[in-house]
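Q: Start with the shorter request: fold the first protein.
A: Done. Sequence, then structure:
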Amino acid sequence: MARFVFPQRLHRCEVYLASTKAVSIPLERMNTKGDYDQSGLAKKLATALEQDAILSAFKSNQGIYVAQKGSKIILKGRVREGDQSTIQIITNIAYNIEGVTELESIFSAFVVDLSWFYQRISFYLALSQAWAIS
């Protein structure tokens, strides 16, 4: 039976096994359950984002990619121009995960231009009104 000791703001967590040998797992390699995981920080961030319905929908709809390199979290994706505040919330959550020492965010913003859509709709409305008159 393993006993986990989670020290505050330390870089390693000691796992004491029944045989009294101490195995050290770096915080960046520990998942939410305390087990060793190669991408532990990325999974902790993904789990934290899925706890909030709005951030979960934002992550899945915008196609945000969460990765990790050592103790650095990498966020990539394309976001709409008005979504910078949501990106700021996600980066704040990432910085508050224990074990994260660095954050890299690579986002390209795009503007949603719906003018072609409105032109097409107005064309079809005008066409349907012309048919209704005749």
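Q: Next, the second protein, separately.
A: Sequence, then structure:
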Amino acid sequence: MYLVSSIRAWLLLGLVALLAACAGPQQSFVNLPKDYFTTGQGTIGVAMTAVPKPDTFFPGADCLLCLATASMVNRSLTDTVQKWPTNDLDSLKEEVAAMLRAQGQTVVVIADPVKVDDLPKRTTVEDGFSQKDFSSIKTSAKVDRLLVIDHRRLGAVRNYSAYIPTGAPRATFEANAYIVDLATHKLQWYEMVRLDRSATGTWDEPPKYPGLTNAYFATLEEAKDAIKKPFVNEAPGFPSHGLLFAAGHGSGWSAHGAPLALRPAPCVERHAGR
């Protein structure tokens, strides 16, 4: 019974991940212009999607039995990862808003989590523009621009080759962050944050996995710094994606200049306004 349930659960997760990663045109990075904060552009809203519950992910375990096997072998790890707290991310929206105010911007914080995936799609799809229609938020919040922090994945990832793990699990964080001009839906800034961090020393220390847990908290802090980097008062318009690892982009670097391990991905999630 447990095997059947595991197969169904991991098949569903695999299909959802594949569709999310591969459907639709891909969106390129958009740097924040260096003069962005010196030009009058109206009120900016700051919104964030709900932080997902941490979970484990096993890319490369592609068949049904592979997924079920990976699920069972890593059951203790999954139980621990699913208990990891996410409250370190709760303040991110307010921190970004404060940084924008320090740059002289008029800011409105959107209190409730934004459900980006539930927003209607725009009829016109082109690179450099949001695929999603944020007009309802423009009307309700009375803002001219919208900065969105769109959390996509959180937890631990372990690569597999069918039934066989090819490495140790790593803490992982994935989010898209962007600014949309709500008059045109043009993307004024678009960043994909994809961070992985290995445990320092031995990772396989059940039941609490302290090494991997510490890597998780370090990843959260690094991710927050990466998202906030373009809005630092002394360096507006900083091209943060030059320092970040993006899955499928070749060699990547952390915000501290250390290379981050590559992980295979069938395609890279780059959906405009997602």
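Q: Describe the second briefly.
A: The helical segments are 2-22, 64-73, 75-81, 92-102, 135-141, 210-228. The mean pLDDT is 82.
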